[in-house]
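debug: dumping io for the single-chain case to check the tokenizer round-trip. Nothing else runs in this session.
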Amino acid sequence: MRKILLPMVTLLVLSVMLIAPTMAKTEVPYSSHIESALVDPGKQWVTEDGILHIRDSYWKGTEVGTLGSGTFEDWLSLNINVATGEGTFSGHWLLTYEGRGTISGSARGTISMGYSINGTFIGTHGTGEFEHVQKKGSLDGYLADPTQIVLDAVGTVYYPYP
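debug: decoded output
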């Protein structure tokens, strides 16, 4: 038994030593400023309990930050109490850097006072230069008016180790 166990343990340790370097990632602080405008309001309705439901509203604008400047697209769903202005949002987004690639992901959070936005985001799908790149963090912002969103995002970008 001991003759079998020792070679298996040795093989396991060597496997971990060979695999571990390929799993290493470089972490870089991330920040950006996003401004987007409503393109399509999506489907909207108010229920009897006073909740405004918005599904698949489409927003488009720009993001400027650590990774450069790009086109920001967002498909949002919201649920907001029309009496209090409190609610939640969730959605998915696509960030396109012309000639470099894309990163896409999701976001979710809360809306308070009818205009203040606070939430988290994660981007896990990249193409081009951003293949295998991930970014995640938090976002804060506001609805400048019903058709304009302004956000600031901070977090971390994870690059695969070369």
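debug: round-trip ok. Residues 2-23 form the longest helix (22 residues).
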